[in-house]
Known about the structure:
The complex is a heterodimer.
Chain A: E1 2-6, H1 14-25, E2 29-33, H2 42-45, E3 48-62, H3 72-76, E4 82-85, E5 88-91, H4 101-105, E6 111-126, E7 129-136, H5 144-151, E8 159-163, H6 170-176, E9 181-186, H7 190-206, E10 210-215, H8 223-231, E11 235-239, H9 243-250, H10 255-258, H11 262-277
Parallel strand pairs in A: 1-8, 1-9, 2-7, 2-8, 9-10, 10-11
Antiparallel strand pairs in A: 3-6, 4-5, 6-7
Chain B: E1 10-15, H1 23-33, E2 37-41, H2 50-53, E3 56-67, E4 70-71, H3 81-85, H4 107-111, E5 117-118, E6 121-132, E7 135-142, H5 149-166, E8 171-175, H6 182-188, E9 193-198, H7 202-217, E10 222-227, H8 233-245, E11 249-254, H9 259-265, H10 270-273, H11 278-294
Helix pairs in contact in B: 5-6, 7-8
Amino acid sequence: xxxxxxxxxxxxxxxxxxxxxxxxxxxxxxxxxxxxxxxxxxxxxxxxxxxxxxxxxxxxxxxxxxxxxxxxxxxxxxxxxxxxxxxxxxxxxxxxxxxxxxxxxxxxxxxxxxxxxxxxxxxxxxxxxxxxxxxxxxxxxxxxxxxxxxxxxxxxxxxxxxxxxxxxxxxxxxxxxxxxxxxxxxxxxxxxxxxxxxxxxxxxxxxxxxxxxxxxxxxxxxxxxxxxxxxxxxxxxxxxxxxxxxxxxxxxxxxxxxxxxxxxxxxxxxxxxxxxxx
Amino acid sequence: xxxxxxxxxxxxxxxxxxxxxxxxxxxxxxxxxxxxxxxxxxxxxxxxxxxxxxxxxxxxxxxxxxxxxxxxxxxxxxxxxxxxxxxxxxxxxxxxxxxxxxxxxxxxxxxxxxxxxxxxxxxxxxxxxxxxxxxxxxxxxxxxxxxxxxxxxxxxxxxxxxxxxxxxxxxxxxxxxxxxxxxxxxxxxxxxxxxxxxxxxxxxxxxxxxxxxxxxxxxxxxxxxxxxxxxxxxxxxxxxxxxxxxxxxxxxxxxxxxxxxxxxxxxxxxxxxxxxxxxxxxxxxxxxxxxxxxxxxxxxxxx
Lengths: 278, 303
């Protein structure tokens, strides 16, 4: 089973929920941090990393001895990542989407592929939790292939909890695609609600059941609850604002470590999610 | 200012690395203080600035970008070549294209022996030029699950620039997206400076460091501001020390204050909600330092 924790708006508490949920369940769990632009879960889980690998995406390499400058590669490429200029071929690796089209269309077989580094994946353990995250190389624009690589570590024998990136565009969709359930973490503010609606829209497009966690549930207004009632979205947990939680978070401490009574609440959350999937 | 505003015009992008540090609320507060500016929301994926600015849209345009393959079943002979060649797993066993998986590379379109695949352009969203009580604003809405957010970011920035030139305004104040990926890269390229709004938490610091490296990578001058600084003073100092070591100027500390949420609920900036709030002074002095760094004309004081 894959539970993806997403939000639309950033900073609503995705990482707080995914890490505390994973730690509360404790065994036969893996936590995949797919927010590869800004992976944060490791700052709270503190895993011991035992494996690091570089993730690359294929980009064209041109053999100029074979190239006849016919230009077919440039005509095919939708991303302007390869172009014949005068007596040479320029490849713009950072624009390449790795479709392999140029290599397939080249009549001279002058194009092969090499890897462009997207970032790294690290794998480790903490207290029985298997932990995997991806770190996008700073300066790299393309995160979906790295997200895909993180998700490939999914172990069907375990419960997989996925920390998703914020927003609703390609990186989020790539992350949510495989999920059995999307847990949306929001806050009861106009920004929280507006972005929640977008995230619910994304879950609907992907046809994945979802439920809400309202974080800092007492700081704003009642509109998120009204919206949830209207849309028939279950509110599975509420976390009231507590300066102790905020300060513990600031130091990289988990809610369940500082306030152990929360463990039961996260287990209850898991139970409710399981009931929704079955 | 002279007609050729190009050299004098400044573009400040407010980014954060981590989401939810208060970027948009702070940016809206700056909008209350800054004069002669265009507001621009470059967080097209989850645009929120309009919720405070309540814009009157005066121009709206469709954003089209990229293409999606559509198989014409009448002409398809199910030879399987497209499925074999597609690297994005976008074509099902019964030859339906999954538009979410389709990357828009056109490989299937090109190689289909029956020319049975159409390739219509995507409508990915809309962008707007609006009037607001605090000045003109350019903003956009990317469709849910749409791609090419980077291109839409580039477009709204171009339109904001055009508008600033047209109206001879000296500043473009831009709300940027979180993260360090494609939309952030599109947001900061060529800007006069970025302001990194962070918070004193382990994740705020971690993400601030990464986005600082990004600004460095693209050689954009960066400044830093710690929001909710009193949540963890040690962390605030760590962040400021990191910033100083990197040669970034620290433009201010803003205390934690529920007034931001209260103002947001009323669709107001913090100054509009409460001109006397304690955060007001912190924001004013932060803006003062920012405008000096940017070399803006003297600001008028709204009291």
